[in-house]
Amino acid sequence: MGLEEVKVIGSRVSPFAARVMIAFNIKCVEYELIEENILNKSDLLLKSNPVYQKIPVLIHRQLPISESLVILHYIDEVWASGPSILPSDPYDRAVARFWAAYIDDKFFAAQLAILIAEGEEGKKGAAEEAAQILVLLEDAFTECSKGRKFFGGDRIGYLDIALGSFLAWVRVIHKMCGVRLIDECKNPKLFEWAQHFSAHVVVQDVLPETDELMDFAKLFVAKLHKPSG
Which residue from 225, 143, 138, 217 is spatially nearest to 184, judged by alpha carbons? Predict the structure, then answer.
């Protein structure tokens, strides 16, 4: 295989690494997952991504590519013969990029805020902020899906991967914090979309089980709450 070896420095508990794995499943590309301990970063990770020191990192042709959304673009361009991940229309592609950035900037932060919030009032405030974000994402789904099953239309695409990678954490937050983020009554379209996405063959073996992920989430939150020094 040599230069064409495809490796992913990632972890099954990381929603950002899940994006890369789902994309490769869509493209039917074989890859080697190098499991990274998020709480104890390896020398390989620090060397491959010295700027942010985060997963995932794609190593292709012995060259590292960092940041999950950047990697999705790379995969779509390099393995162009497989099903497209990004929309083909320039406007639709720009809209998808906008909402993917919004998801990473706002929805990820809202999930983290719920996990680390202390006390009922803190959790309630973080949950209310997340609810407002999901109202906008429900509208985005209506705009992008055009009445079909996924953000990408009839098949999973860029925005589906961007948001869907967080669904395992959505379930953990519900079980661990009692906060139901994607609600059948408040977000009916996203709720139905989440069922379709989670059941899809390219996703099923990627998103971790709730109990498995919750064990990690407890360690992660404990580390965040631990005083430095």
Answer: 138
Distance CA 183, CA 21 (A): 27
Helix H, strand E, coil C: the string for 69-92 is: HHHHHHHHHHCCCCCCCCCCCHHH
Check if CATH label 3.40.5.10 holds for domain 90-220: no
Burial tier of 222 (Cβ tally within 10 Å: 0-12, 13-18, 19+): exposed
**Is the backbone peptide bond immediately before 50 cis, with ω within 30 degrees of 0?**
no
Distance CA 66, CA 53 (A): 9
Q: What DSSP state is assigned to residue 205? A: T
CATH hierarchy code of domain 2-78: 3.40.30.10
- What pLDDT does 118 receive? 87
**For 22-35, how does the pLDDT look when each residue is reduced to its tens digit (9 = 90+)?**
999 999 999 999 99
CA distances from 177 to 110, 180, 184 (A): 13, 9, 18
Considering the entire predicted model, what is its pTM? 0.95
Distances (CA, A) of 70 to 29, 45, 56, 136: 17, 17, 10, 24
Q: What is the location of CATH 3.40.30.10 in the chain?
A: 2-78
